[in-house]
Amino acid sequence: MRRCIVSSLFIAGAIGLPAATSQTTNSVATDFAAIDAYLEAEMRADRVPGVALAIVHGEQIVYLRGFGNDGTGKSVTPQTTFILGSMSKAFTALAIMQLVEQGKIELDKPVQHYLPWFCLADIEASKKITVRHLLHHTSGIPEKAPQASDAPLSIEAHVRALANVAPNHAAGEIHEYASPNYLVLGALIEQLSGQSYAEYVQNNIFTPLAMSNSFTSQITAMQATMARGHRYCFGFPQPTVLRYEADRMPTAALISSAEDLAHFMIAQLNQGRFNNQPILSPAGIEEMHRPAIQSAGFAYAMGWRVSELNGATAIHHGGIVPHFRGKMVMLPQEKWGVAVLTNVSSILPASPASHRMADNIAGALTGKSLPAAGSPLTRIYWGITLGIAILTFKQLKEIFTIKHWRAQLSGKSARSLWLGLGVDLLMPVIVLIGLPRLLRVPLFEMLRAMPDVGYWLIASAVLGFAVALFKMHVVRQHFSSL
Fold first, then answer.
1. Is 62 left (phi over 0), alpha (psi -120 to 50) or beta?
2. Looking at the 3D structure of the chain, how many domains does it have?
3. What is the pLDDT of residues 61-81, one digit of tens each?
4. Which of 57, 74, 230, 453 has its CB 3.0 to 4.6 Å from that of 237, i.e. a possible disulfide?
């Protein structure tokens, strides 16, 4: 399988692809019919509106293609842009390593050496957190650390908000993936470069890598080539535009295209060079990719995860925001790189289509057969919809039969009635607070990423409370009349 795929990459004239949706470089025609068919099947299975794909080998882009629509009535192309989510962390790590090589920062010096005002609630623990700890997510900063809430929001404001956060563990002990680590790194970049984070990335990464369709402003991106993101509503993608989180840019908000990510991966795979221009030394790239601490199923490096894929070392990172998802996978020994970007997202635990696509395509490049498309995502949504329908029906039935319930009060004891009312009052609390905690998704985040379920939870809880309070009033009247 591997020999067939690799050979087909370099056989000129093997197949002609429409210029509007496909692109190769150096006049190399490639036969990716199987990968195309696989991606299209995955899109149908998860109802993904649009996908952009880039594959690089060595110093060359060997395949670029867009699939589906961008949510604005246009076809997705390799130049269509998407919000990168946590793939932004790889850019932040690169920026830090550039500052290291400029002599402006040392990885093992405490963060407070550069940001004297940085601290957590534990003052002594704060003194021990180094730049390296932030890069590896071993600082002890909790995954769910609260962010700043007062306008104007900024990178610095979020970092200052950590002053009220207690660390979960001592620095250097445990890998706990927490995005605030990279917000602190963003503040360091601004402090040490004298530029905003956006300006630094534009001047030192986007421009030298010829990433002309990469942005640090959603307004500018939407005026150019940005796709419209989507959230699922009972399993069907709905286009949406959300507030752009420029204040979280170092960890989740850079905007780029498949073609531009191809440039970024080429530099990562070729000792920091793109078109013979260095953006980092070979030693810097090696340090950034070096697995440092083990986690569940992978080791974390600097802005990248490292694991095994079909017997090959894979350096990878995904990105998830409420309306976009994507993933980059690099195979450094084989010199392959794959980037997949999609304009739809979900917070459900089913494996996101973009991640599955990128992993399976990278696996195919190492000789693994492409699997059949499909995930439990659609079935999960059907289950959620059915569950919501059943619970809503039961609540409505309870309202319409309340007269019958009232007529039966005389045959019940006070204890059983008040116990039943206690259960009625507890159920809305379980729905509104317990379920989000069980899913490990705060309600505010559910409203942003999964509004269909989030607003139903609120409506169901309000209805449940209203019915329970009405029943309490009826029970009081019943016993006062005895």
1. alpha
2. 2
3. 999 999 999 999 999 999 999
4. 230
**Domain C-terminal end among 365, 399, 422:** 365
pLDDT tens digits, residue range 130-165? 999 999 999 999 998 888 888 789 999 999 999 999
Q: Is residue 120 part of a domain?
A: no
pTM metric for this prediction: 0.85
pLDDT of residue 350: 66
Tell me how far apart the alpha carbons of residues 80 and 221 are, in angstroms, rounded to a whole number. 9
Last residue of a domain, one of 365, 399, 420: 365
**What pairs with residue 307 in β-bridges?**
314
DSSP 370: P
Please give the backbone phi and psi of residue 185, each rounded to the nearest 5 degrees, phi first. -60, -40
CA 163 to centroid of chain Cα atoms: 26
Res. 466 pLDDT band, cuts 50 70 90: confident
Angle between helices 377-400 and 33-46 (to 10 degrees): 10
Q: Where are the beta strands (DSSP E) in 209-269?
A: 229-233, 236-240, 255-257
- 353 and 460 inside one domain: no
- Structural domain containing residue 426: 377-480
What percent of the chain is modeled with pLDDT above 90?
A: 63
Residue 293 lies in a domain: yes
Residue 93 and residue 12 share a domain: yes
Residues 51 and 82 in one domain: yes
Q: Which residues contact 435 (CB under 8 A, 6 or more apart)?
A: 457
Q: Which residues contact 467 (CB under 8 A, 6 or more apart)?
A: 395, 398, 399, 402, 424
| φ, ψ (nearest 5 deg) of residue 154 | -155, 170
Domain shared by 398 and 258, yes or no: no
Say whether both 92 and 198 belong to one domain: yes
